[in-house]
Design goal:
Two copies of one chain form a homodimer. Chain A has six helices and 15 strands. With about 325 residues, the first copy, chain A, is of the alpha+beta class. Chain A has two domains: about 5-175, HIT-like (HIT family, subunit A, 2-Layer Sandwich), CATH 3.30.428; about 175-330, 2-Layer Sandwich (HIT family, subunit A). In chain A, strand 1 (about 5) and strand 2 (about 15) form a beta hairpin. At the A-B interface, strand 1, strand 2, strand 8, strand 9 and helix 2 of A face strand 2, strand 8, strand 9, helix 2 and helix 3 of B. Strand 2 of chain A pairs parallel with strand 15 of chain B.
Chain lengths: ~325, ~325
């Protein structure tokens, strides 16, 4: 069972892997290469993964066999484990608990070589639908306080397999970064009685200089204080705290803007490594008035070094207005 | 002039480079290689850098000429600029100010090939003395609220030049990460009336299982909730909030434990990329009772991916007790 440990100064939680620990030699190995021939996420290799949690698949095909468009499986090397109780304990001034949680992999397509810009809007719609299905299902487990959906694309962004996939981690605590956003939004709301994200969206749409894409329900823009070159935020225009509350009629709009934004990024930056992350409200937090879910895309073009780690203060060599103008030179 | 912009939700400041901005093509170039032949930090190449701020050098040698052991120069491509006023302004709900600050490079040795484990204790003592000299000098400039001293070692840790060097950045605001530590320490103090760092040091010394090195004035240990494999914290045993308050008699002790710890890391992990950062109290903050300066060393062995960025929640595959036992197998 992994262990959760809390830093007594910053109150940051860390997952410590006690069972499959890595020693000095493990960090000196090159990453294993998975070609389409030995990829455990490719059709025909279903037995190499844990049994599927769900799939979108052709009629009359069986679970854990080919015929799927999307396949959700438990992570074979989970950061957190689904069974067990939290068992909170202390050692002197330190706090810890069992690493209980869920860690799933969403295999987005049977096509090993489909890049981030390779999806049609209907395909992306099925991916977004899968995110929703898993989010809503796991939200019912009362041990979980937060559900994080994210994608690591490319080795430099932390992906260990090339086959296109996203991940979902359900955690027994509300992560620190999420609490910071919620607290910032709460303070703004108490002062202004308006949602800070709604105000940002209004101001961005009116200024126009950082807008990357827009459709009926969503807007993609480069944040005013972008930490990274070509950082992009996709947000619903209507105020809504939880990703899980997205309506049937909005899902295609999210798929459309995600396709358009990723296509522009891939063309402008020649298929860059990137992460995207859905920021949503915690499962049980009452922040519906002031929090506003959104999706953050971070191309990984620069290295985070000592200054950033020590200060939480970022240096961005590409002003977001300039990034926007480059992105708009390419078709969506 | 660089621009400081504040994120309206998280209140995180970002430095945006408006003058030497980087477009898509700039991210596709390989890093230039600087061998000892064309290294601007090597002796004989002093004219390739801005004029030195100070140096430790042989008697009867002139500034900006060979004969130095340590040389401090303004960064040729500074993240912040020394001249000018802050000029705080707003645009709608956004806040910004001019990027006023100091950005210096401490060239630690004339020897291009001296690795992180290549220093004698007297050499490291001169490096620590230089950190103190520059810290105390810049602290007198009332525009600066924080002084961050750090080292990026190796390209994967963000170093753009191989020649051994550290950096110093003085900022006009107190960085977010620093405020978080101070706030955490303050809360603990109000509850316990003791410094949380003093309590951690006491508990670590008594438990022993995460102690990497110890001398009269300092202790090096693997933090209980280490975010990264082989993360190490060096702290003074006596309570002191500001690095600038280090006493003459303690400087050699810091040099000794820094040498010993880096030597163990380099031997155990085969010369890993790493960052180290001095965490100290802000210039004008009255946190003497509850803050405690320390130095954080972070080997860069794992990639930070979507989960960590989205949550501030880290997964560490190497328990700190295991890291300690590996480090202790090598001589200091």
């Amino acid at each position: 069972m992994p262990q959760l440990r809390k830093d007594p100064v910053t109150k940051r939680w860390v997952i410590i892997n006690l069972e499959k620990s890595r020693g000095p030699k493990d960090f000196q190995l090159p990453n294993p290469v998975h070609s389409a021939d030995n990829c455990p996420f490719c059709p025909g290799k279903e037995t190499l993964t844990p049994p599927e949690v769900m799939s979108y698949r052709e009629k009359d095909t069986l679970p854990n066999q080919p015929g799927w468009q999307i396949r959700v499986i438990p992570n074979k090397f989970p950061a957190l484990q689904i069974e067990g109780d939290l068992d909170r304990t202390g050692i002197g001034l330190y706090d810890m608990m069992n690493g209980v949680g869920a860690h799933e992999v969403i295999i987005e397509t049977p096509n090993h070589k489909c890049g981030a810009a390779g999806y049609t809007v209907p395909q992306m719609t099925t991916i977004v639908n899968t995110y929703c299905d898993r989010y809503r299902d796991l939200k019912r487990d009362r041990r979980f306080r937060y559900i994080l959906i994210f994608k690591n694309n490319g080795q430099a962004a932390g992906a260990s397999l090339d086959h296109p996939h996203s991940q979902l981690i359900a955690t027994p605590i509300i992560p620190k970064r999420v609490m910071e956003e919620i607290e910032g939004a709460r303070q703004y709301y108490y002062y202004k009685e308006r949602c800070v994200f709604c105000d940002i969206i209004r101001q961005e749409l009116s200024a126009g200089e950082r807008i990357i894409h827009e459709n009926e329900n969503f807007v993609a823009f480069a944040p005013f204080a972008s930490r990274f070159p070509f950082e992009t935020c996709i947000a619903p225009k209507d105020h809504k705290a939880s990703f899980g509350a997205i309506e049937e009629s909005e899902i295609e709009g999210l798929a459309d803007i995600l396709c358009a934004t990723l296509n522009r990024l891939v063309k402008t930056l020649n298929d860059p490594p990137f992460n995207y992350i859905i920021h949503t409200s915690p499962c049980d937090e009452n922040c519906g008035e002031y929090y506003h879910w959104h999706l953050e895309i971070m191309p990984r073009l620069t290295k985070v070094a000592g200054f950033e780690w020590g200060s939480g203060f970022y240096v961005n060599p590409t002003p977001p207005e300039l990034a926007t103008s480059f992105l708009l030179q390419n078709s969506p």
